[in-house]
Design brief:
There is one protein chain. The protein is α+β, with helices and mostly antiparallel strands. It is 44% helix and 29% strand. The longest helix is centred in the C-terminal third of the chain and has 20 residues.
Length: 210
């Protein structure tokens, strides 16, 4: 349990709203310091081969203006790529994806340390946001940064191992702690306590199948 708590506490989380041409978008921001040089972190988040080792398989035309597709998940256009500082892509999923963007920003922080900041901006149906809140995407990104941290440390799981881990008590504890952390961030952003509590419970139940 202490390792799970440590992994959750390594991430700073923020929740907000932003006006975009498509309407009012929800935002989630994750910030974590990794024990790795910026060049290594950059390579891990932009190399298709390495992305497949800590996140999921990806295919596409990997240049600005090109398109990518994560296997069984989101796809979109590569909008901006400034090595080794910033990557911005559209993030679209499903038959009616609406608006979504993800931006990753890297900042060196002392010898052998890099701060990664990930911002996900999306316009989602009000019913979905009211039911699940920001944790719907936040938990997924917490799991992603967990995998990235393991990968950068020289570890990680195979795809089969990761799928098996997701149904373990340890994974359920991680998801629960993550959901609670996003609920706290939601409340800190101004959401009513009862709304934050209800969306937290719904999101944890969705991820854990409880």
């Amino acid at each position: 349990m202490s390792e799970i708590v440590d992994q959750i506490n390594r991430v700073h989380r923020e929740v907000g709203l932003r006006r975009v041409p498509a309407g009012e978008a929800g935002t989630v921001v994750l910030r974590r310091t990794f024990e790795a040089e910026a060049a290594d972190v950059w390579d891990a988040v932009t190399s298709p081969e390495r992305i497949g080792r800590w996140f999921m398989p990806v295919t596409g035309d990997f240049k600005v203006g090109g398109h990518y597709q994560l296997e069984g998940n989101a796809g979109g256009e590569i909008l901006e790529c400034v090595a080794p500082e910033r990557l911005r892509v559209s993030w679209l999923f499903g038959p009616d994806p609406g608006f979504g963007e993800v931006e990753v920003r890297l900042t060196p922080e002392g010898p052998g340390q890099t701060v990664l900041e990930l911002e996900h901006v999306a316009v989602v149906p009000e019913e979905f946001r009211a039911t699940f809140g920001p944790g719907a995407v936040g938990i997924g990104w917490d799991l992603g940064l967990l995998g990235l941290g393991m990968h950068l440390a020289g570890g990680g799981m195979s795809r089969e191992e990761a799928e098996a881990w997701q149904v373990t008590p340890e994974a359920r504890q991680f998801i629960t702690r993550s959901g609670e952390a996003w609920g706290a961030a939601y409340a800190a952003s101004g959401a009513a306590p009862e709304v934050a509590a209800a969306t937290t419970a719904a999101t944890i139940a969705f991820y854990t199948g409880a």
